[in-house]
Amino acid sequence: MNREIITGHARKLRFLRKQHDKKQLEIAHFMEMSQQAYSDLENGKTAFSDETIEKIAQFFHISPADFERPLESVYVGNNGYNNSPHHNNNRTIDEHFLQSYKDLLEQNRKLFENLIEEKEARIKLLEKLLNNNQ
Question: Is the CB of residue 3 less than 8 Å from the CB of residue 9?
Answer without folding.
Answer: no
